[in-house]
Amino acid sequence: MKRKILIVDDDDQIRNLLMALLRNPDFEVDTASNGEEALKLIENKYYDLVITDYDMPKMNGEEFLKNIKKRFPNKNSIGITSTTHEKALYRAGADLCIHKPFTLQEINSVVSRFINDQYV
After folding, report:
1. How many angstroms separate the CA atoms of 29 and 50, rounded?
2. Would you kindly state where each structural domain of the chain is located, as residue ranges?
3. DSSP 92-117
4. In terms of DSSP H, where are the helices of the chain?
5. Full-model pTM
6. 3.40.190.10, 3.40.50.1820, 3.30.360.10, 3.40.50.2300: CATH of 3-117
7. Which of 50, 69, 83, 113 is 20 to 30 A away from residue 99, measured at CA?
8. pLDDT for 60-107, tens place per residue?
């Protein structure tokens, strides 16, 4: 069964990079450019993991995570941010935070932990 991952980031390059990195036969990857768009996707589809940036227009990562955690308290999520906003993402419900700039190896390692054993 394919695991479903949602990537939420307003930066096209980051979103596309993460999508390309995570695209494989075991994952189905969707993307959204902001929290409002992502909430609409989550309402209509189950995701095993949500990866979200903090700094986004319309709804930042903290507001977005608070929204999904109210509706789906067990939703697994990874926040991507500078160290400045890490605490806010954890308070909002992030299971883990990755700091910018991150490495592709770091993303692979963290997602593998969530998808393959530790969290899901």
Report:
1. 10
2. 3-117
3. HT-SEEEESS--HHHHHHHHHIIIII
4. 12-22, 35-44, 61-71, 86-92, 104-112
5. 0.92
6. 3.40.50.2300
7. 69
8. 999 999 999 999 998 999 999 977 899 999 999 999 999 988 888 899
